[in-house]
Amino acid sequence: MDVSTALDTRTSVRAFTDEPVDLAVLREILTKAARSPSGGNLQPWRIYVVGGDVLADIKARAADVLSKDPRGETPQYDIYPRKLAEPYKARRFEVGEDMYARLGIPREDKAARRAWFANNFRFFGAPAALFCFVERYMGPPQWSDLGMYLQSVMLLLKEAGLDSCPQECWAMLPETVADVVGAPDGLMLFTGMAIGHADKDAPVNGLRTRRAGLDEFAEFQGI
Ligand SMILES: Cc1cc2nc3c(=O)[nH]c(=O)nc-3n(C[C@H](O)[C@H](O)[C@H](O)COP(=O)(O)O)c2cc1C
């Protein structure tokens, strides 16, 4: 698979089969992805991969915390800016509407939307997942390095016939995740990522999200 195909065919998968994921394959992918660039070659990504009993434990603990308070724990960063302006607000709205349309859940049915959202905290049925942390004292440049690493992981997963969904929602449960994986206090959770094989029959996995046209985000000058 070439890079263009991997980029074009990677999508966020939100329904997985229970087919297991080979640990050796995951180890190879995480190793290869470490060729991603990072400012000063800091390689600030800190990854915890979970499956089996640990994954089950996180799911159970997440369900327990969220049953007491659906807002989860105190987030350690703003998942979105508090005031999201256009065009970003409309894009966020659109992807939500497109996804719920595929699921057949209308806007008014808040309970069904909440129930669907809870699937996030079961990793959408994926048999494996990772959590990406970063040292708390690091800033936006290092956080951008995390994105480069994670995109490499997702493309390599695609190449290996695997699917993924990055999951910032886990930032709603930073204490639970850190506790289960044993991450030290100095590390801050950025995101989770569900990993497995897409359930090809699930309508939600047919979602092809849109992208802004080139001229909406790029300018070419003197070239
Ligand atoms: C850092 C990051 C965190 C995300 N968190 C979630 C999440 O918690 N739950 C979810 O369903 N999708 C999540 N997504 C998926 C985005 O909604 C998705 O990438 C976007 O809508 C574009 O769709 P595509 O990935 O299918 O191309 C996340 C994506 C990124 C990059």
From TrEMBL:
The keyword Oxidoreductase applies. Pfam families: Nitroreductase (PF00881). Keywords: Flavoprotein, FMN, Oxidoreductase. It comes from the Bacteria. Residues 9-197 form the Nitroreductase domain. Its cofactor is FMN. Belongs to the nitroreductase family. This is Nitroreductase. It comes from Pacificimonas pallii.
